[in-house]
Amino acid sequence: MRIIILGPPGSGKGTYSSRLAIKLGIPHISTGDIFREEIKRGSELGNSISNYVSSGKLVPDDVVNMVIEKRLSQEDCREGFILDGYPRTLNQAEFLDGISKIDVVINLNVPKEVIVRRLSSRLICKNCGAIFNKITLPPKVEGICDKCGGELYQREDDKPEIIRRRIELYEKEIAPLLEYYRKKGVILDFYESDGSGREISLDQVIEKMVEALKKYL
Ligand code: ADP
Ligand code: ZN
Which end of the chain is more exposed for a tag (fewer CB within 10 A), N or C? Predict the structure, then answer.
């Protein structure tokens, strides 16, 4: 199955897509992860994009498109893939149409206040970048990373006003893409909760997602 996943910051997009990929036996392809990896390795590609990534600006379409074309041509993508962080512009969506069929676009819908609550309780390790959460995933020792013993901190942009602003920016950015894929009839609007206000576990969310995807097989 060829899947695109769209969702605002704090929607659980990264977690859901990596879990879903394992469940479906297809690769999880995150352009953000690919770029960070290339930058860390100091590759030619990494050096050419590090300024964009460190300032949060979009990497030029030509570069992103080339990276994705190469990645999707690899053997492990034959049975499908989950794209996370791509496409982000109409140009990218049109390019993608030229190189691959897309079966479904999962649109994660999470209420703004839920995102604000989640992100403003997020903690990150200064040393290894591991992510914890004061509410849902507390570290064993307060303020200390379970994985490496590093110090945990709160990101400057995980403050409530800034989170709301980031969500609005995301909505603006993604609106043309949603319209583009709605016209094609491939959008799966996904709500993680059942509307009752009850929290459901990660496993339950993934199960619900797999069930909803069956219609698009
Ligand atoms: P963020 O939510 O901060 O954008 P990501 O991990 O998705 O985090 O991406 C990190 C960075 O990589 C982005 O800020 C951008 O510079 C670059 N990037 C990732 N995906 C794309 C894309 N599809 N088009 C352009 N730039 C991208
Ligand atoms: Zn750590």
Answer: C
Where in the chain are the domains? 2-111+167-216
Q: Is 13 a catalytic residue?
A: yes
Q: Which ligand is nearest to the CA of 177?
A: 1
pTM of the full structure: 0.88
Residue with CA closest to ligand 1 atom 2: 9
- Which of 36, 49, 58 for a ligand 1 pocket mutation test, highest count of atoms within 8 Å of Cβ? 58
CATH topology for 2-111+167-216 is Rossmann fold (3.40.50)
Which H or E element spans position 82? strand 81-84
Atom of ligand 1 nearest to the CA of 57: 16
Distance between CA 206 and CA 148 in Å, rounded? 29
> Is 78 labeled as catalytic in the residue annotation?
no
The CA distance from 15 to 12, in Å, is 5
Provide the residue-wise pLDDT of the chain in tens; the chain has 217 residues.
999 999 999 898 999 999 999 999 999 999 999 999 999 999 999 999 999 999 989 999 999 999 999 999 999 999 999 999 999 999 999 999 999 999 999 999 999 988 998 889 999 999 999 999 998 889 999 999 999 999 999 988 788 899 999 999 999 999 999 999 999 999 999 998 776 767 788 899 999 999 999 999 8
Single out the residue of 5, 31, 29 nearest to residue 16, CA to CA.
5
What distance in angstroms lies between residue 166's CA and the mean position of ligand 2's atoms? 26
